[in-house]
Design a protein that fits this description.
The radius of gyration is 25 Å and the shape is elongated. The protein is α+β, with helices and mostly antiparallel strands. Helix 1 packs parallel to helix 3 and helix 2 runs antiparallel to helix 3. The chain contains 4 helices and 12 strands.
C-alpha cells in the first residue's frame, strides 16, 4: 500500500510541475482564411494565407475561386479565375463584385499553372486547394464587413494572435490553477499521508497562486489588446467610408504587444 501511495504521489507532483508548460504550439496554428464560420451579409472579401508567394514569380500562376451553395449541390457554382492582390507579403485577397446570398457556402481556392490546378504548398505542409465552409447570416452584424482588405487582414491576424497568445493562456492557467487548488484542498483536509500530504498541498497551493497570477496577467493583456483592436476597426471603417489609404503609421501605433 505504501508503494502505491508513493507512486500516486510522484505522478501527482509530475502533473503539477508539467501542468503549467506553455499552452501554445504556434507551428500547428491553422492558416488565416476568410470567410470562415458565420459572416454578415455584406461580406465580399476573400482572404487566404500563402507563405510561399515566390513560387508565383516565374510560374505565371493564377487562382480559381469556386463558390458553391451547400443546399444547391446541383446548381452551377460561381467560378472565377483571378490574379489576386498580395498584402503584407503572405496574404492574398480578392473582393467579390457582389455579396453572396444568405445560406451555407463552400469555398475552394485552386492554384493554376498553365491553366491546370497544382498542389503546391501554401502553409507549411498544407497544399492547394484551400477549402473552407462558411455561413452568410443576414442577421449577423459586424463592422469587420465594412473594412477594406488591408485593414481586415491586419485585424483578423492580430485578433488571432491575441487569442492564441493571451486568451488561451488565460483560460489554461485558470483551469490548471483551479485543479491545483482542488488537489491542495483534498490533501489538506481529506487525504492524510503525513509529511507527504503536507508537501503535496503546499506545492499545490503555491502552484495555484502562481497560476491565478499568470491568468490575471494574460487576461489583462487580452482585454487591453481587444480595446486596441476595436480602435483599429473604427479607423478602418472610417477609411472605407472616406476612401482613404492605409496609414502604416497609425497601425504601427496600434500594434499589439504580447
Amino acid at each position: 500500500m505504501k508503494s502505491l501511495h508513493y507512486i500516486l504521489t510522484l505522478l501527482l507532483i509530475t502533473c503539477l510541475v508539467m501542468g503549467e508548460a506553455p499552452s501554445r504550439a504556434q507551428g500547428m496554428v491553422a492558416p488565416l482564411v476568410y470567410p470562415e464560420g458565420r459572416v454578415c451579409a455584406d461580406t465580399r472579401t476573400i482572404i487566404w494565407q500563402d507563405l510561399y508567394p515566390e513560387l508565383d514569380a516565374d510560374a505565371g500562376a493564377r487562382y480559381r475561386l469556386t463558390l458553391r451553395e451547400s443546399a444547391k449541390k446541383d446548381a452551377a457554382p460561381l467560378v472565377t479565375e483571378i490574379d489576386p492582390r498580395r498584402y503584407f507579403g503572405i496574404y492574398y485577397a480578392y473582393s467579390l463584385p457582389a455579396p453572396l446570398a444568405a445560406g451555407n457556402w463552400e469555398l475552394t481556392i485552386d492554384r493554376l499553372v498553365g491553366g491546370e490546378p497544382v498542389t503546391t504548398r501554401h502553409y507549411h505542409y498544407l497544399r492547394y486547394p484551400v477549402k473552407r465552409e462558411f455561413t452568410v447570416d443576414p442577421d449577423l452584424s459586424s463592422r469587420l464587413c465594412a473594412l477594406p482588405p488591408d485593414y481586415l487582414i491586419r485585424c483578423l491576424q492580430l485578433d488571432r494572435a491575441n487569442t492564441y497568445a493571451n486568451g488561451y493562456n488565460a483560460l489554461f492557467f485558470t483551469g490548471s490553477s483551479v485543479l491545483s487548488f482542488g488537489v491542495g484542498v483534498l490533501f489538506y483536509s481529506v487525504i492524510n499521508l503525513g509529511i507527504i500530504s503536507t508537501i503535496i498541498y503546499t506545492i499545490s497551493f503555491i502552484s495555484a497562486g502562481t497560476g491565478f497570477t499568470a491568468a490575471g496577467y494574460y487576461g489583462w493583456k487580452y482585454r487591453a489588446n481587444r480595446v486596441k483592436l476595436e480602435k483599429m476597426v473604427e479607423i478602418g471603417t472610417s477609411v472605407s467610408l472616406n476612401g482613404a489609404i492605409l496609414d502604416d503609421r497609425i497601425l504601427a501605433a496600434l500594434e499589439l504587444r504580447y
